[in-house]
Amino acid sequence: MYGLTMRWSLAGAPSGTLERLREYVEDVSFAKFAGLEGLRFKSWRAREDEWFEGTYVFVDARSREAFQQAMEDGRADLPGTTIIGREPELIEACEIVAVVRGPAGFRSSASFER
């Protein structure tokens, strides 16, 4: 499978940045990516005061390459860049070796399940 990782540093970001990112994902980004042609799935990951990351899996190399090029070309204007105040430190293609759905199943969700 064709993966892509995009990561921003949260070190030194203003207080409340991660909460603003969560709100953006829930209100805007989740729906945007739910309809992205060629995308198998996306996850949003974070570590408070450390980093915020999008992980993407695409159906083919062409879909990933087109998306990656758009992200690299527009990195200064990405919503994550605007919210965090700096461009991503990493935009990296990767191979997703395997994915398994465990016995608890998989649920699509726009917000963190507490």
Describe this structure in words.
The chain has 114 residues and is an alpha+beta fold. It has a single domain, classed as Alpha-Beta Plaits. The protein contains 3 helices and 4 strands. It has helices spanning 17-34, 61-73, 79-84, and strands at residues 2-9, 39-47, 51-58, 90-95. Strands 2-3-1-4 form a 4-stranded antiparallel β-sheet. β2 (39-47) and β3 (51-58) form a beta hairpin. It is globular and about 35 Å long. The chain starts with a strand and ends in a 19-residue tail after the last strand.
User: How many β-strand stretches?
Assistant: 4
The average pLDDT value, as a whole number, equals 94
The sequence of SSEs as H and E is EHEEHHE
CATH level 1 class label: Alpha Beta
Give Rg in angstroms: 14 Å
Strand order of the largest sheet: 2-3-1-4
CATH architecture: 2-Layer Sandwich
Fold-level CATH name: Alpha-Beta Plaits
Helix content: 25-40%
